[in-house]
Amino acid sequence: MEIKAITGNKPVSGRYLIVENQLRTAKNGSNYLALKLSDRTGEIAAKVWDADETVYQRLEVGKIVELCNIQPKLFKEQIQLEWDAKNNGAFKLLLDSEVDFGEFLPHAPGNLSEYWNYINDTIQAIDEPSLKKVLKVFFDDRDFVNQFIRVPAAIKRHHAYIGGLLEHTAGVVAMCRAAADYYPLVNKDLLLTGAIIHDIGKTKTYRLEKGFDGTDQGKLLGHLVLGVNLVEQAIFDQFGKRAEDMDDPLLLSLIHLLVSHHGIMEWGSPVEPLTLEACILHHADNMDAQVTKFLTIIRNQTQDTPWATFDPGLGRSIYLKGLPVELEPKNLSEGA
Q1: Pick from 286, 311, 267: which is nearest to 159 by CA?
Q2: For the chain, where are the E strands, in sequence order?
Q3: Is the separation of the CB atoms in 215 and 205 below 8 Å?
Q4: Burial call 37-71: b when 16+ CB within 10 Å, e when fewer
Q5: What is the DSSP string of 169-193?
Q6: φ and ψ at 56, to 5 degrees?
Q7: What is the pLDDT of residues 213-254, one digit of tens each?
Q8: How does pLDDT run across 270-312, given as a tens digit for each residue?
Q9: Element (H, E) at 209
């Protein structure tokens, strides 16, 4: 049974990836495991009662567990799975060689080929020669593209699934294209180049193995610094100029788009937007991230209620009445 199909009305059987595992002590003094299980449709909490260190070591993060007839329970308005560690028939672990881990990680709800084609078409439409050269450094590199189209845009907050960075980038590009067509005096080629590469540091920040994890570089430096380093190196390779010696206002403005796209210093931005294009990119980036949080809650809603279950990450419940029945991602060509 897929996680999105778990409603609490039927026993659950299926295979799931363990993405979190903590050994805790209950109020009665006994130990239990607090797990989080995942498949490509979502995540669900689970508790394993009367667990000890041996069970904790067996049910480690990155293992695939096969459950058999586990009855879901409702805890704090959230459905979770529960079973006793002594019930040997409740679960078994699978060998790594028996599974394809990609099948157990969440995937972008949209069509990755469509997102990629949309971004690639945007790249081809950019006329400014120096910006085109910078983009070619990355998007003519097959290894880079393979990473770009698979990694998540985040591990927790938004677009936390395979293809998340690609989907997020396509969304930001779509909004920047619309803004460039509407507002006067926008340097469209500059804005769209910035939209395409604003998060490329995430290709060095996240990795896909038995789950989503951060790289050492990502944890120590962050995606913004890594992205600026990549772009500065590309500019040096193409033009022989370092950022500190650069006198080209266009290339300086491109780097500024990366360092300012978080908007305010409290959100990790070294500088705030100081150009028209930087202002637009920041708001497009934030809007796509926030809208996707809402869409994820809506798509994961399993009960027919006017309000979604309270979401800790968003910090609120959202109102569901009036939503259209069709919740599939919009075809990008319809609004481009």
Answers
A1: 286
A2: 12-25, 31-39, 42-49, 64-70, 72-75, 78-84, 91-94, 206-208, 212-214
A3: yes
A4: bbbbbbbbbbbbeebeeebbebbeeebbbebeebe
A5: HHHHHHHHHHHHHHSTT--HHHHHH
A6: -60, -45
A7: 888 998 999 999 999 999 999 999 998 888 777 788 999 999
A8: 899 999 999 999 999 999 999 998 988 888 776 778 888 888 8
A9: none
